[in-house]
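Morning F.,

Quick status update on the modeling queue. The single chain you submitted on Monday has been processed. Sequence for confirmation:
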Amino acid sequence: EELRRRLVCAGYSLETTSFCEVGGYARDLGAMELALRQPFTFAVVLSESTEVLKRLDRSGILFVVISERHFRLNSHPGWVRFHVAAAVPKFVRQCSSAGIRRVCEFGYVRRMSASAASQLRNVGIRVEQILVDVNYGRGILEGIVRGSMEAAFERFGRKGVALPDLIYLPDDYLARGVLTALQELGIRAPQDVRIVSFANAGLGPVYPRELTRMQMNPILDGKILAEEILRAIAGDTVDWKCIAPQYVIGETFAQP
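Structure tokens below.
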């Protein structure tokens, strides 16, 4: 939203084009093909679909790709790495030094971008991964929140159930659902279980105690990206910055 606001203030109008993707392959590019008939100055691509990127490359439009992977194409002037898992190593080191032995990690796909499971296992920490059932008929955001809430009720709601040492929530919408369930069940952090969550500055999730979190800053990131795009449009060489979360130690990783 900050990116859009700043580009509009600079005199540019923005059009959003979306399409359905499965495994990085775009199934329907009709909306994009229609958009490409218009005289665009620049495109910001939030897709890793090689079909989409090759089609844009052929169009001759300047564009920047925001993704985890680096794509080498002819016409785009840059790549912004969206390094979602940048804060995971620091989190894993804290777990190791704090003597954490059992972690429960929630996810709504099998390979969450910010998953810490493999790195935690590499230092000898047991990880239970819970795959959330998302009802996309409710809309993706409500589906994730409600699905994660129901998964947490199922995992922690039984009488006498053993809690892990720590619950890791690698997505802010997952966090909203799981935290709601924990509060309803009377499970406290850090007294009963430690919690580390993904978060966005100014957007939450919100919890009675300050969450230990991997925090994105969408306003600052949007400001920097808008400035870089405007320089690229002007023909300047741009040193594109990486977008990544910062590890913020709050109260939910304190000693119980």
